[in-house]
Structures are given as C-alpha cells and as structure tokens.
C-alpha cells in the first residue's frame, strides 16, 4: 500500500484508485460492462496512445472510470488508440461511442482536441470532457479537465536537487508539446530553487505531429542512458509508457528515477525498480474523472474549464518506498510557497 505525507495543506500521495472501460476503437475488446442495475448513465472513454496498461497517464484516467463504475453504478465503455493513427480515426472512435448511446464521453489527452471539437459540434446533446486541453474554440458541451503539472513538477525538481550527488539531473519529455513543456519548466524551476548551479539535461523523444514519444520504452531507455552517460544521477521522465524504459535504465545504473502521472513505484510492471524510483509526480486524473462523472450523474454537470491544482490535490508527489521522507521539511516548505502564492511556477521553460 502507498503511504502519503502531508505537505502543509497539501497531501503528497499516490493517485486515487480508478479504472475500466471498453468498446469501439483500435484496440477495443468490445467488452462493454455494466455496474449496478437501474443506472441510465453510460460513460464512454477514449484513451490516448498507450492506452490502459501504460502504467502512467492513461492508467490514471482508467482508475477514475473504474471508481465511477464501482461507486456510482454507471455503465462504461472504453476505446483505445493506435500508434500513428490519423485524425479521422479519433473522430470515428468518438462517433462510435456517441452512436452506441454513451453520454458523457471522456477523451484522454490533448491530441483529441480537434476530434472532440468536431464530434461535439455535430452532437450538441452529448456531453464531452477532454483531459489536458482548454481550447477557446470548444463548443459549450465540452468540459476541459486540466492540471497544474508545473506545480507538481516543481516539487519533483526540489526532490531531485536535494538528492543529486553529482549536481547533474535530467528531464525526458515524451513529445515536445506545450503540455510537456509545463512539466519541464516546473522541474527546472524546482531544481534551480535549491541550487542554481545544478545542470539539467533535457531530451524530447518526438515532436508533433509525431506522438510516438509517448509509447516507445526503447526510446525512453536510450534517452535515459544518454543522460546517465553525461553524469545525471536523477532523471524525471514525463513520457507516458516510454518512461518505463527510462526508469529501467536509471534503475540498472543504480541512480534515481522520478516517475510521472501514476505512482509508478506501485505499478506492478515497474515495482521491481521501486528501490530506484525516488518519487512520482502524480497527476490525479482519476480524481478529475470521478468528479466529472459524479457531477453528470447528479444532474449538475461540470462545464467550462476545471483546473485541479496542487492546493486541490490535483497534483502530488508519491511516497512509496519512503525515499523522500528525509527531505519532507524542504518539500513542505516548497509546497507552502506555491499554495500561498509566494512562488509562481513558470509554465514555459
């Protein structure tokens, strides 16, 4: 079980439990499932690249759906993406969920933005949520669920700086996008807040429209090895399932890895590396998903842009392994500075 520690008014913990969906889409298993009887709410979820089982971003969203299924008795369906798919594939996936009667529908990831806008405009009576995107052109039936990734990453940077013995750390981003730059910016700011002289290596695995950087553990491993060879001894990866390759390389070198989105030291596929996963910057997508579905079920749906920040436990640091217990006071102080407004964390490197 994960343990959590409080940072001032903020809980630094692994993300909450949640996950389950099925239906139309590239890797779909057509196993639409129902939980409870008498429920009229049918919730669809369309995953980003990597899908359920990525040990990271998608899994956090899936935990939210699972919790909604078990706690609220909703019917759920999940649809998975495939690497290298066209925009039309995303539109087809969402349209298939609409045709099957799912409402609301949750799109996991900013890559769905164009498809969500189009399908939502074509189906004004269906509610949609999109995670990690807040376009000003979205129709009124689309709700944005966003997070202050830079705030959680700042704390990860503080932890990295305090634990580094070489004064040399690294950041690996899956895709060089505005979203992942928020992780980079926060991390670097956190590192420099402790010691401006610490060197920070930065590597991106792909650049839009190539999104394979989120689903290529081999690239993640290679990038991490490159940073290790340059002297980095703490490496933070914000790269979806590619991060598992990075964690493997760092662990094999006996250094510190920092996970992302889910408490990666507690993920079955990565638990063998837990002694070398310093912490994970957990983005509590599950919390947002459950909140959105709960509001919809109660007849009071969330609208507009809903941001889950550090103060609201939208982002947090995992404490599995107790590896950051010795720097708790410094992390407490950093968290307090953010939540009080004394520190404004940058969103661009």
Automatic annotation (TrEMBL):
Record carries keyword Lipoprotein: yes
Write out the entry's keywords from A to Z: Cell membrane, Lipoprotein, Membrane, Signal
The record ties this protein, via Pfam families, to:
Bmp (PF02608)
Membrane topology label: Lipid-anchor
From the record, what ranges are coiled-coil? none
Has the keyword Cell membrane been applied to this entry?
A: yes
Write out the similarity annotation. Belongs to the BMP lipoprotein family.
Q: Which InterPro entries match?
A: BMP_lipoprotein, Peripla_BP_I, PnrA-like
Which cell locations does it reside in? Cell membrane
The record places domain ABC transporter substrate-binding protein PnrA-like at 44-346
UniProt-listed SUPFAM superfamilies: Periplasmic binding protein-like I (SSF53822)
**Signal sequence: where?**
1-22
Q: What is this protein called?
A: BMP family ABC transporter substrate-binding protein
């Amino acid at each position: 079980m994960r343990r959590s520690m409080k940072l001032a008014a903020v809980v630094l913990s692994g993300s909450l439990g949640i996950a389950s969906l099925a239906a139309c889409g590239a890797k779909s298993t057509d196993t639409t499932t129902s939980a409870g009887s008498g429920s009229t709410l049918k919730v669809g979820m369309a995953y980003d690249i990597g899908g359920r089982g990525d040990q990271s971003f998608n899994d956090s969203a899936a935990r939210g759906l699972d919790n909604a299924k078990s706690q609220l008795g909703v019917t759920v369906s999940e649809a998975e993406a495939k690497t290298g798919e066209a925009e039309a594939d995303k539109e087809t996936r969402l349209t298939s969920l609409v045709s099957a009667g799912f409402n609301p529908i949750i799109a996991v990831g900013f890559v769905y933005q164009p498809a969500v806008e189009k399908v939502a405009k074509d189906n004004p009576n269906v509610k949609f949520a999109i995670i990690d995107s807040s376009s000003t052109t979205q129709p009124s039936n689309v709700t944005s669920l966003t997070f202050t990734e830079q705030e959680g990453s700042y704390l990860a940077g503080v932890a990295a700086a305090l634990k580094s013995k070489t004064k040399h750390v690294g950041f690996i981003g899956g895709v060089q996008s505005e979203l992942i730059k928020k992780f980079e910016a926060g991390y670097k700011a956190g590192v420099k807040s402790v010691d401006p002289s610490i060197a920070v290596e930065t590597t991106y695995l792909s650049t839009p429209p190539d999104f394979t950087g989120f689903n290529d553990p081999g690239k993640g491993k290679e990038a991490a090895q490159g940073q290790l060879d340059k002297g980095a001894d703490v490496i933070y990866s914000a790269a979806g399932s590619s991060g598992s390759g990075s964690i493997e390389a760092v662990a094999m070198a006996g250094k510190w890895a920092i996970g992302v989105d889910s408490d990666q030291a507690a993920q079955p596929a990565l638990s063998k590396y837990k002694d070398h996963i310093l912490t994970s910057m957990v983005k509590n997508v599950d919390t947002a998903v459950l909140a959105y579905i709960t509001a919809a079920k109660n007849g009071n749906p969330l609208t507009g842009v809903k941001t889950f920040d550090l103060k609201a436990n939208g982002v947090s640091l995992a404490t599995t392994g107790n590896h950051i217990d010795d720097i708790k006071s410094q992390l407490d102080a950093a968290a307090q500075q953010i939540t009080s407004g004394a520190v404004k964390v940058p969103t661009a490197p």
